[in-house]
Amino acid sequence: MSSEQxxxxxxxxxxxxxxxxxxxxxxxxxxPADFPTEPYPLFVTWKTSSNGYLRGCIGCFAxxxxxxxxxxxxxxxxxxxxxxxxxxxxxxxGLSCTVSLLTNFExxxxxxxxNLQNHGIKIRFNSNGRNYSGTYxxxxxxxQGWNQ
Length: 148
Known about the structure:
Elements: H1 3-6, H2 9-23, E1 40-48, E2 54-64, H3 66-79, E3 95-101, E4 121-127, E5 130-136, H4 138-143
Antiparallel strand pairs: 1-2, 1-3, 4-5
Helix pairs in contact: 2-3
């Protein structure tokens, strides 16, 4: 099943509810009944609504149950992404959220073996004995004006 078939607006609502409840010191919201039961790797991205600036993006490549996974990574991306200060309650109404479910992983045969519209990029390399990695979701290439 492709991620387009399972993405639901309730996933984004659940991410917002999870963040708002945490910031207000309230219990976690109940997991919506319409969430699929299949586990998926996922990322949660927070951006400012006014200008689209990234405010946090963290996820996981392991298959996760969607309720606990969305909640965990909504909070981690908003509150623990080391690139940004933690989101504060006064910012929440000015944020947008994207939940990305990752599917159909495939290896590339070369640096140009990917499609701008459909593929994300996961990079790993070693430089001077240090390991580095980066993940770029499919929408990043077009948002940043990349080409191959």
